């Protein structure tokens, strides 16, 4: 719902071919949160997400995976689902960003994130479902709703989650919608973010879908050592490395190796 129609080429999703085409030592794959499987009725969500995780466990060695949890379960049941996925080999939890849409929403998801942090695993905040956008052009959700979701999630995380879970490692997809660039505006208005959030060594920013201008700007705000390499392939075509374009190949190696190792706890 809210997403444009699209065609899937199974060849683009062949696990063996994806492994052979990797440009890094190892990559993590995630279920597409915008599809909206997590908020399905419990029975359907459990069936779909269990199937995803069964398939993920069979991926080639160089392809790791993010867990996904049914958001319509009770807090304890959902946390148990996450714990089981982590014990089955998931690298961490992929959380739809609209579950951090506000401080109140962040409070509700805090027990789940606590369970993930207790297991020593990271959280990957990725754009979630978009509703009531059927009349918009195909590019609209990615350019507006997804960015806004990430922006709100960054503020909610630092306002609510970080004070309670100081060691929780988090990776924000698409550079957190560039939310850190707005900290200077938010802080004087009484927002619970500021320099502390910008210097948070446990918050990381995935570069997918952005180019060198955005990468330079966010690196100036949070430090280039907090950026991790990501792509939207095969949803969008392979692009040149924005970090290499913005800075140098040496820094691109840091973003492809050093920062992901810290983010994932390796």
Shape: globular
| Major β-sheet strand ordering | 1-2-3-4-5-6-7
Q: Spans with pLDDT under 50 lasting ≥5 residues?
A: none
Portion of residues in beta strands equals 5-15%
**Secondary structure category:** alpha/beta
Work out the helix count. 11
CATH superfamily of the largest domain: Metal-dependent hydrolases
CATH A-level architecture of the largest domain:
Alpha-Beta Barrel
CATH domain topology of the largest domain: TIM Barrel
**In whole angstroms, how far apart are the ends?**
37 Å
For the secondary structure, the number of strands is: 7
CATH class of the largest domain: Alpha Beta
Q: SSE order in H/E notation?
A: HEHEHEHEHHEHHEHEHH
Largest beta-sheet details: 7 strands, parallel
Q: How confident is the prediction overall: mean pLDDT?
A: 91
**What is the CA-atom radius of gyration, in angstroms?**
18 Å
What count of domains describes the coordinates?
2
Short description:
43% of the residues lie in helices and 10% in strands.
Describe the structure in your own words.
The chain is an alpha/beta fold and 266 residues long. Helix content is 43%, strand content 10%. It has helices at residues 15-20, 42-56, 75-87, 103-118, 140-143, 145-164, 183-186, 195-198, 212-222, 242-246, 249-264, and strands spanning 27-29, 63-67, 92-96, 123-126, 170-172, 203-206, 227-228. It has a 7-stranded parallel β-sheet. Helix 3 runs parallel beside helix 4 and helix 4 crosses helix 6 (145-164). The longest helix is centred in the middle third of the chain and has 20 residues, at 145-164.
């Amino acid at each position: 719902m809210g997403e444009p129609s699209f065609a899937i080429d199974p060849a683009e999703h062949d696990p063996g071919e994806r492994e052979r085409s990797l440009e890094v030592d190892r990559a993590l794959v995630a279920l597409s949160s915008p599809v909206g499987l997590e908020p399905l009725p419990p029975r359907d969500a459990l069936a779909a997400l269990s199937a995803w995780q069964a398939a993920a466990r069979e991926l080639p060695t160089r392809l790791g995976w993010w867990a996904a949890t049914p958001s319509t379960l009770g807090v304890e049941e959902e946390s148990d689902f996450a714990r089981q996925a982590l014990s089955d080999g998931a690298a961490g939890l992929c959380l739809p960003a609209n579950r951090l849409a506000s401080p109140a929403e962040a409070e509700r998801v805090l027990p789940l994130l606590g369970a993930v942090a207790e297991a020593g695993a990271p959280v990957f905040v990725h754009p979630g479902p978009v509703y009531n956008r059927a009349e918009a052009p195909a590019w609209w959700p990615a350019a507006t709703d997804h960015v806004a979701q990430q922006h709100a999630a960054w503020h909610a995380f630092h306002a609510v989650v970080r004070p309670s879970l100081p060691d929780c490692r988090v990776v924000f997809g698409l550079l957190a919608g560039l939310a850190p660039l707005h900290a200077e505006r938010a802080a004087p208005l009484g927002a619970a973010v500021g320099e502390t959030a910008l210097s948070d060594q446990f918050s990381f920013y995935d570069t997918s879908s952005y180019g060198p201008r955005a990468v330079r700007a966010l690196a100036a705000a949070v430090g280039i050592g907090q950026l991790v390499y990501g792509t939207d392939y095969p949803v969008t075509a392979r692009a040149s490395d924005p970090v290499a374009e913005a800075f140098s190949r040496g820094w691109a190696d840091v973003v492809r190796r050093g920062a992901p190792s810290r983010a994932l706890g390796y």
